[in-house]
Amino acid sequence: LQVFDDEGKDVTPHPLFHSDPNTVAPRQGKLSESSAHFGATGSVFLPSFSVHQTSGVNARLICLLLNSGQKRSRLLTSYNFSDVQVRREETKEELTKEDLDSRVDIYLTETETIWILDMPSVVVSVESEDAGRVQERNRIYADICKNRPGNDSFVEKMMQTINGATKNKEAQCDQIIMEDKGTTVTSWDLYDSFNVSEIEPTSKAEGSRATTGKSSKSDSPKESNQTTSVSSDRGSTTSSILISESAVLARTHEEEERHSEAILASENFQQDLFFMERILMENIFQPKLAAYRQLPVLIDPGVTADTSGTVAAVKEAKQEEHDKEKKDDEEQKEAFVDPSVLSDLKKTPEEIVPPRLEQLWSYICDVTNGLGVSSMAWNKGNPDLLAVGYGAFDFKGQKKGLACCWSLKNPMWPERIFRCEHGVTALDFSMASPNLLAVGMYNGSVAIYDVRSCKDAALLDNSGSSDKHTGPVWELRWVEQYRGATGDGKRERLICISADGRVTEWLVQKRLHCTDLMKIKRTEREKKKLPGEKERKSEALISRQAAGLCFDFHPKDGNFYLAGTEEGHIHKCSCSCNEQFLETYRGHKGPVYKVTWNPFSTDMFLSCSADWSIILWHQDSQTPILTFSSATAFVHDIMWSPKSAFVFAAANESRAEIWDLSVSILKPVISCSANPRVKFTSVLFATNTDCLLVGDSKGEVSVFELQNLAAPGSNKV
């Protein structure tokens, strides 16, 4: 068989293998026979076929011998060579034996590469042309992996990938030799190992020398054991090793404890706990906080039918109890309800629901338990932040005081606790700087704290000043005052009144400096002279100063203020005149504990006293307009409602009361009795809700919701 190209040249391939003619090659006949068979049957024979290999450009002939049913072999080769033509010579005669035994030469040449399977290698040689490019891609990928955490360009997603083919690998290693070892431990080894934190570990040499130097003469069991161990250096070495191992374990335990303490004291951990506490408090107090803010109570959608039935049963029980109270109070309502009010409201006594106080929660904790509540104040910038002053004010039972800042978001523990050396008697938040809290104390000192700081130290303090009060600071207030006729703004002043008879103004600068607005002097009582009675000499006064207990500035004119004294008088004073009083109101027969202007009808003011009475005054009259007395107990605190000119709250020792002058001037519309051996000391209305806060002598501040209290149609008395 011969192969010719397009120009007619003989390009028949030559054989690559020349066999030895002396050897017998049985396969050669078969190959020749197959070649002859191909020529006889008219099959196409393509001798040139190449396969690409990773080693280079070697070309080989791929031949597949298939055994057909007639036991004939065929040669399969490539068929896509357009530049090769096969010329087949037809043989009319049958092949003879010589023809079959003749040698046939086949020559292989390089042809077009055909890729059957391409598996690129994952490893590139450093000497190859692509080494630089691969290294650059690896560096870029390493940078991407390094910058991946916290980058918004990457998103964590799940995906399914093809599992790689499993491979079995076998390795040969030395056999692991197991050994059993034991040692003898004496009683003193156990004792020293147990108390290793108190014993310094010694080296092996020191331990052996110390053991060798011991006396062998002893009668006690421990000394006899030590004598036995002297004869063996191995025992002493083992003991020192055990002590060293115990010391290492003890140090590891101490390091773990220090690491745990560092985690607990870290700022991030504290912040996480703060957020968790907020979430728990919101979940626990959500119904009560919603009632405080007058919002609907949220119901968990996952509540089961049994739970919903229980809630419905509780509501029915409350409704029955409410109906029962309504029937019991019908006669009392008819007694004190004014008919004119009924006609205005166009309701009968049976249709009016009596007002009441519903307790929501209480501000109390272990730190404040047992200390009396002296004063309360809302923050001017954050109405959810409440400052409460605590202290013991018995002359013989003095204790250290506290100023705590409570938040509605956590009624179980205060946000800030400022510990004072003396009892806190008064406190108030600044209006211009709501973060400043002024605190007055029982020893006459005044301190200013920054509630933004977690530190317990005061920002400013006048304890070392010579101008400080010599008596308790019973009331303290930040007051705004216009700068003058030419001024275009307000300035804030800190005003205090003390038992030493001074009303002072404190200037908040680098230090606290004060000026006296008024020195309250004692006034003689006016006594009527009977006919024919001789004039009596006036009694000599022990002190010319009268103890000041309370004050309140006029809501519209910051130049005038009222001051209540221990002798039962109320003086109207002016900031521009510190020598004499403008007016003196005499009506109480005991110390005046509180005086307050009406925020709506600014000519009226209230005062309460230790003589069990509350008096309503008009500033133009020195005679009391109305006197309220409902219990035989000291009235410690009063406050007008911020929403009504007719409503005020009072706290006496036995109960807290709500008075509504539009309903009755004889008895309070709501009263809440104190617990046994507990006295109410202060009251405070919430600024933005219908709630009342009541403080007592045991350090508890109760939050009550005012229910069914009708709002009057006018704001003037």
UniProtKB/TrEMBL annotation:
<dbReference type="GO" id="GO:0045503">
    <property type="term" value="F:dynein light chain binding"/>
</dbReference>
<dbReference type="GO" id="GO:0005858">
    <property type="term" value="C:axonemal dynein complex"/>
</dbReference>
<dbReference type="InterPro" id="IPR036322">
    <property type="entry name" value="WD40_repeat_dom_sf"/>
</dbReference>
<dbReference type="GO" id="GO:0003341">
    <property type="term" value="P:cilium movement"/>
</dbReference>
<dbReference type="Pfam" id="PF00400">
    <property type="entry name" value="WD40"/>
</dbReference>
<feature type="region of interest" description="Disordered">
    <location>
        <begin position="1"/>
        <end position="28"/>
    </location>
</feature>
<dbReference type="GO" id="GO:0045504">
    <property type="term" value="F:dynein heavy chain binding"/>
</dbReference>
<feature type="compositionally biased region" description="Low complexity">
    <location>
        <begin position="227"/>
        <end position="238"/>
    </location>
</feature>
<keyword id="KW-0206">Cytoskeleton</keyword>
<feature type="region of interest" description="Disordered">
    <location>
        <begin position="315"/>
        <end position="335"/>
    </location>
</feature>
<dbReference type="InterPro" id="IPR015943">
    <property type="entry name" value="WD40/YVTN_repeat-like_dom_sf"/>
</dbReference>
<keyword id="KW-0969">Cilium</keyword>
<dbReference type="GO" id="GO:0120293">
    <property type="term" value="C:dynein axonemal particle"/>
</dbReference>
<feature type="region of interest" description="Disordered">
    <location>
        <begin position="199"/>
        <end position="238"/>
    </location>
</feature>
<keyword id="KW-0282">Flagellum</keyword>
<feature type="repeat" description="WD">
    <location>
        <begin position="628"/>
        <end position="662"/>
    </location>
</feature>
<keyword id="KW-0966">Cell projection</keyword>
<dbReference type="InterPro" id="IPR001680">
    <property type="entry name" value="WD40_rpt"/>
</dbReference>
<keyword id="KW-0853">WD repeat</keyword>
<keyword id="KW-0677">Repeat</keyword>
<feature type="repeat" description="WD">
    <location>
        <begin position="585"/>
        <end position="627"/>
    </location>
</feature>
<protein>
    <recommendedName>
        <fullName>Dynein axonemal intermediate chain 4</fullName>
    </recommendedName>
</protein>
<keyword id="KW-0963">Cytoplasm</keyword>
<dbReference type="InterPro" id="IPR050687">
    <property type="entry name" value="Dynein_IC"/>
</dbReference>
